[in-house]
Amino acid sequence: MLRQTAFLVCFLGALHVISGADWTYTGATGQGNWANLPGYSDCGGQSQSPIDLPVTKYYNPLLTPFTFHNYAETTAFTLKLRNTGYGAQVDLVSGNTADVKITNGGLPGTFKAAQFHFHWGADNTRGSEHTSNGTKFPMEVHIVHYNMKYTSIGEAITQPDGLAVLGVFFEIASTDNPKYAPIVDNLDNIMHYTNETMVTPFNLMDLLPTNNLDRFYRYSGSLTTPGCFESVTWTVFEDTVPISAAQMAKFRSLINSAGQPTVDNYRLPQPLNDRNVYVSYPGPPSTWGYTGDKGAAYWANTYPLCGGDSQSPIDLPPTDLMAYDRSLGTFEMTNYDNGSIHDATLYNTGYGVQVNFGGNIAVTARNGGLPGTFRLAQFHFHWGSNNAMGSEHFYNGKSYPMEVHFVHYNIKYGSLGNAADKPDGLAVFGFFFEVGHVHNCNYNPVIENLHKIRFPKTTANIDSFNIRYMMTENMSRYYRYKGSLTTPACYESVTWTVFEETIKLSSEQLAQFREVFNTAGQKTVNNYRPPQPLNTRVVYLSYDNLKLVGAGSYVTAGKFLIAILAAIAVLFH
Fold first, then answer.
1. What is the per-residue pLDDT across 155-189, written as a single tens digit (0 to 9) for each?
2. CB of 120 within 8 A of CB of 139?
3. Distances (CA, A) of 341 to 51, 165, 260, 521
């Protein structure tokens, strides 16, 4: 407790534990050994900072522009520039007016500015703590704020939502940056460890990029120095700030606590592990959607196959207008009930929710009238804005609140991509959902993890589960027809099986699907294609709906005619 108290006292001034340099950036007490030093085990955690900001970043529509309160009000604070022994830090000392703080920007509260500090390299090829797809910058500034729901930065530092840090990269310019003159011109006054000087307050907005403050990266991480508490909501701005080589040289003239020039005072990027990095702006516009001028009615303009004659979904006719096909027997299903499948990934496609399977265990289906053996690749969901609609297929004009599609590919093609456009390439099992009175625990592996993939293109690993439990008990009664993918490019390559028995989910479970966001930054609802014309296609039944049901029973004249038509249809099937 004594060590932690000492840390909190020193934090405001330096964001470091300064006790005779009990840690360093290199050597025996360097960053590679921080986690082994007494009291700093958090430095070996799973959510450490900095990181290399990856190419793949996910749009989070909740990352709205920041509101900066009193950043430009120079009477609100005084500034103390210090040589901490590790670098240059500027403390914000409270003034006589309102707090200097930030809100919005997707932050979990209101955050008060406490200090800002710099990390730089021995030359202009390195120095930033964060990197961007491997690119290094000569310097990075961190503006540190604490959540005002806590009484002090000392209280906030160990809380998961305690800190918010704004990070800005620097790039070398041919001329000095006058906005940074109040700091650079005072570095001579803090040449040695423990030196400090007061700086005339200036517009703190000058610390930030001039443009595009609405474009930034976001992830959850840690302090980048011991004790490495994982309490930071990180924001790194996309745009950089210019600084001259001469100004950079002034930072390198500072002397550290060991009596050496202060250089390379940055921590190397840490593993991202299972964290996502988000961006505040969407990527390139989608080429299709479910509404508007990119909606289903216009798909064929860009994807001509979507205007084909064998498209899906369809409005399934009543069973007495379907043809019984005696070849549609039971399925032979392998590994659907294997609860040891460990490589399932939950994925927000930007259009809906999907579960992808890896390659360690083959889940396959054959027979049931399928033209081969088919391997499960993924399953995904379609739902509505309320419980009165949402399914893609209808039955005799009736819609259901949601539908799940289990997508398989013909193993003779080797992969889903190779099979997608082949006439016998895909087999999809479709199941309707209805509202039940109790939760369906079989779907917990998906539903309980939806909060992890709220934003487009995000993923989450999910625990092993029994796939068979996610299907209906009776899989011998189903409808069969030839159709297409229900999303572009609408390849007419699908042997469709839609099961008669429905799956029950509670209204609360269904509502959780409507909380995930799409590529347009809106909550995902009505992500279904309307039924397409059946044209000349026949829908088949896996069971004989026209059989006599007992002594004295009979078939009506109308059903007798349908039976004849069904028999003819089977001959040509």
1. 999 999 999 999 999 999 999 999 999 999 999 99
2. yes
3. 31, 40, 55, 33
How far does the chain reach from its first CA to its final CA, in angstroms? 78
Omega of the bond prior to 445 within 30 degrees of 0, cis?
no
Residues 31 and 36: their CA atoms lie apart, in Å, by 10
Pairing label, strands 111-120, 101-104: antiparallel
DSSP of 242-300, one letter per residue?
EEEHHHHHHHHT-B-TTSSB-----PPPPP-TT---EESS--SPPS--SSGGGSGGGHH
| Same domain, yes or no: 185 and 252 | yes
**How far from the centroid of its chain's Cα atoms is residue 518's Cα?**
11
CA nearest to 207, candidates 167, 176, 249? 167
Same domain, 97 and 16: yes
Q: Are strands 503-506 and 426-436 parallel, antiparallel or unpaired?
A: parallel
Whether 409 contacts 415, CB under 8 Å: yes
345-396 pLDDT, tens digit each = 999 999 999 999 876 789 999 999 999 999 999 999 999 999 999 999 999 9
Contact 546, 484 (CB under 8 A): no
Closest to 431 (Cα-Cα) out of 462, 464, 388, 392: 392
Length of the chain counted residue by residue:
573
**Residue 40 burial (CB count, 10 A):** 20
CATH assignment at residue 362: 3.10.200.10
pTM greater than 0.85 (yes/no): no
* Structural domain total, the chain: 2
What are the φ and ψ backbone dihedral angles of 203, each rounded to 5 degrees? Answer: -65, 110
CA dihedral in degrees (548, 552, 555, 557; nearest 10)? 170
- The range of the structural domain enclosing residue 491 comes to 292-571
| Pair 306, 489: CB distance under 8 Å | yes
- Radius of gyration, alpha carbons of the chain: 31
Sequence letter at residue 242: P
The 8-class DSSP code of residue 529 comes to P
In terms of Cα–Cα distance, which of 71, 57, 250 is closest to 170?
250
